From TrEMBL:
Pfam families assigned to the protein according to its UniProt record, in alphabetical order: His_kinase (PF06580)
SUPFAM superfamilies on file: ATPase domain of HSP90 chaperone/DNA topoisomerase II/histidine kinase, Integrin alpha N-terminal domain
PANTHER family: SENSOR HISTIDINE KINASE YPDA
UniProt-recorded Gene Ontology molecular function terms: phosphorelay sensor kinase activity
A Gene Ontology cellular-component term: membrane
Protein name per UniProt: Signal transduction histidine kinase internal region domain-containing protein
InterPro entries cross-referenced by the UniProt entry: Bact_2-comp_sensor_kinase, HATPase_C_sf, Integrin_alpha_N, Sig_transdc_His_kin_internal
UniProt keyword terms in alphabetical order: Membrane, Transmembrane, Transmembrane helix
TM segment ranges: 12-31, 441-465
Domain Signal transduction histidine kinase internal region, residue spans: 485-564
UniProt keyword Coiled coil, yes or no: no
Amino acid sequence: MVAPLLKDKQQLLRASVVISAVLFIPVYFLFPDFSKYQLNLESEVNSNSNTHICFEDLNMDGNYEKVIFDKSRDPLVLVETGGKVLFQWNFVGKFILNEFYYFADYNHNGQKEIYVLTYRNDSIFVHISEGLANEIIAHEIFISTFGRYAGKPDFSISGFTTEDLNNDGTDELIISLMCGFSYTTRKICIYDFIQNQLHVSPVSGVAIQNGLFLYDINNDGVEEVFGDIAAHGNTNKTYPYSDLYCWLQVFNIKSGYIFNPVKLGNYPAIAQIRPFSHDGQNLIAVFYNYYGNNNDSTFIALYNPKGKLVKKRIIPYEPSFRNNIIFLHYPENNPNRLLLYKKNGVIETYDSNLDLVSSKESLPSTGKVKSIDIDNDGEKEHILFNDSNGEIIVTRNNFSFPVALKTDLISEGFSFAMSGKQLISFTQKNKTYTYEYKKNLIYPFRFILILSAWLGILLAVFSIAKLFQYLANRRYEAEKSIAEMQITAIENQLNPHFTLNVLNSIGSLYESHEVKKAQYYFGKYSKLLRQSLFMSGQIAVTIHDELEFVKNYLELEKLRMDNSFEYSIKGNSGLPEVRIPKMLIYTFAENAVKHGLKHFKGNGKLIIEFLKQKKHLEITISDNGVGRGKAGQYSLMSTGKGLEIINKTLKLYSELEAVNITYKITDLYCEAGSPAGTKVTINVPI
């Protein structure tokens, strides 16, 4: 019998909290992205290997134009909006291979120019136009010559931007060039639009390889130009600032280098150079990453605006430092901190004493870092490219809140469109995808959503538990009622009067020396008692067990009534394993004997028969007794509780087990119309 469950409300609530917490774990992973920032697909257009597509808000009205760079034959640029071509621009030569275009408003007239880099023969040119105004501002401004290696152009653009470096109200165009074995194209080129003059850094065996930074280091009112410098060992020792060594170089448009370049160490190495501020003083932070076999050490150092060493900290070399996959970052919102971003995604923070103050984990990145103010909040975001899996990662200025985007890119072939909608575009598999970088609208409500979801699960679990408790208690009460009624029924039958009569009958057999018969009936009586005890904790039994109990009872009744009736059981072989309420067949058999056969003058017969139908088992208990009408005359003292107990038992059993057992009592008559017994038909669903 099932006991009442979880009666204590506090216990029920505690159990519900635990269960809901466990259920919430898998549900949590079904939540939408709760990152503070998102990359949402803005557009997807067809392209090909000869076409590069990007989007830019050229007139800064909040709507972006589509800019198509066609490299199929002679290069050309198309500007489209709403499917209409606004501007077509043709070139002689070829687009350079990597960052060959840029958008900026150098004259601050509210119209962005398109800057395009091409090469022809041995020369590099820049072209400038206002696409929406259909105006060519400059055509083929010479930037530099270049060399070739293995018959191919040997140069790349490592930086491309505009900034007013001389405070004349108009931006200058700043381009940093890098090359391989033909080491002559390593320089910084600055074009002054007002003076129509090209400023070029001194001849050098090293140049900015990555990251173009502009910062007024020496407080002279002019921003200096600097970036990451690598030592590859392509030049000889006599070449100026040979790349057999790694150098600290800071260039100024007016004065050239603001101090004589500082030799940092030997090749192979890369120096990442960033501005740093401490106690109102501008400094230069350097991460020198040496990955050769000599005795040089990897270090972080601070230099003053005159190139003098202020502080230095040796850092144990790690394989993850190699190939520019560690990034020295000077966070704009925390000027006394330096961040080192490692290949495995670990970010180390150093203070102005170059002491390690914290370490945290972010997303791993094996490629270069591009820093650009994507969302126009005054701080540059960082865009990292993971060469190992083509993943693009966008983080905030301090590398917090990373957003990852899976792509099939095998190189950093993506571009940026700065407009009212902050866009990142890249091309893969003949399609150009454009993603918008923006704040996640549900981020501020993430805790409310998570809490609401958990409370919803808790409420559901608690409600189900309460329902289960109600059903369990209801079942318990029903089982208790059935058990009490069944006990009452068996007590009515196995009362002292019945027991005394049975024992007297058995005693008479002993007196007449019918020992075997006495032992037989005593065995039946003991089995009856034993079965009563064994089945006392059950409300339902198998038909087989019920029949065994009934047969023992009928044998004893035959003894008590001097064998005045016979009984037979038919169709009981191969019965299905069906459970029925205990005492069901017994009650009707007992009524047949007690009320029908007891007062019958003649050979009484009791037949119990089983008939298996398609959907139910039919059980009949019939007798040839005096019938119900005459039996009532002999049973004036009977309480009639038997059928009342059966009715209540079947009703409760139906509620408990969803098994609707029914019965029907039929009075039997002979041909002359006289009562000829009673038949009970029980239908048990199977």
